């Protein structure tokens, strides 16, 4: 059984209608159907990174649109019973990645989130490359008690930093400003 077949089988056993994949490692972008599951994927020229969304037959009927943004971001809009929802599946750059890569990712993600209609339900999911420690002071609303390791994140600011920024009204430069805006919107969403 191939990897895709195994993931589809696990998805069906778990009863999932939508499953996000990080590190898909498929070239280019596209759509295919395998065993009644639609696979939307966004990759690059190399067999590295890549993200994807797997959808059941029922979820596939609800697709309004989808867009492969980059090898790290794919977005999809679905019609639900009462509204629409937009899902962004992401795979964040690591802490050791060059600043230019991180800035590019956060600028692309910020643009995707800005383009979502205000009346849509927004879902951001994926692998955010964060390692969370047991000290959750200031982020209790976001992180559970079961966290392990050291607090380290590719996010530009912690929620505490965002609150501090709101208090003193400093404006960061344009690139980190987009990263700040993203951190602030994620904090407000939780």
Describe this structure as you would to a colleague.
The chain is an alpha+beta fold and about 190 residues long. About 30% of the residues lie in helices and about 25% in strands. It has helices at about 5-15, 55-60, 100-115, 160-170, 175-190; strands at about 20, 30-35, 35-40, 50-55, 65-70, 75-80, 85-90, 120-125. The strands form 2 sheets. The chain has a 4-stranded antiparallel β-sheet with strand order 1-4-3-2. Strands 5-6-7-8 form a 4-stranded mixed β-sheet, covered by helices on one side. A hairpin with a 2-residue loop joins strand 2 (about 30-35) and strand 3 (about 35-40). Helix 3 packs across helix 5 (about 175-190). The model is unreliable at about 155-180 and about 185-190 (pLDDT under 50).
């Amino acid at each position: 059984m191939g990897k895709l077949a195994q993931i589809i089988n696990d998805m069906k056993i778990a009863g999932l209608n939508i499953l996000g994949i990080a590190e898909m490692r498929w070239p280019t972008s596209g759509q295919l159907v395998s065993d009644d599951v639609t696979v939307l994927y966004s990759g690059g020229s190399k067999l590295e990174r890549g993200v994807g969304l797997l959808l059941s037959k029922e979820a596939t009927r609800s697709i309004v649109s989808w867009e492969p943004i980059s090898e790290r971001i794919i977005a999809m809009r679905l019609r639900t019973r009462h509204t629409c929802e937009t899902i962004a599946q992401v795979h964040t750059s690591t802490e050791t990645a060059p600043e230019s890569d991180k800035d590019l990712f956060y600028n692309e993600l910020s643009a995707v989130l800005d383009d979502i209609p205000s009346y849509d339900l927004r879902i951001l999911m994926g692998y955010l490359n964060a390692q969370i420690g047991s000290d959750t002071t200031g982020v209790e609303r976001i992180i559970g008690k079961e966290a392990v390791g050291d607090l380290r994140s590719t996010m530009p600011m912690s929620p505490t930093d965002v609150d501090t920024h709101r208090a003193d009204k400093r404006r960061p430069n344009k690139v980190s400003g987009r990263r700040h805006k993203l951190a602030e919107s994620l904090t407000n969403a939780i």
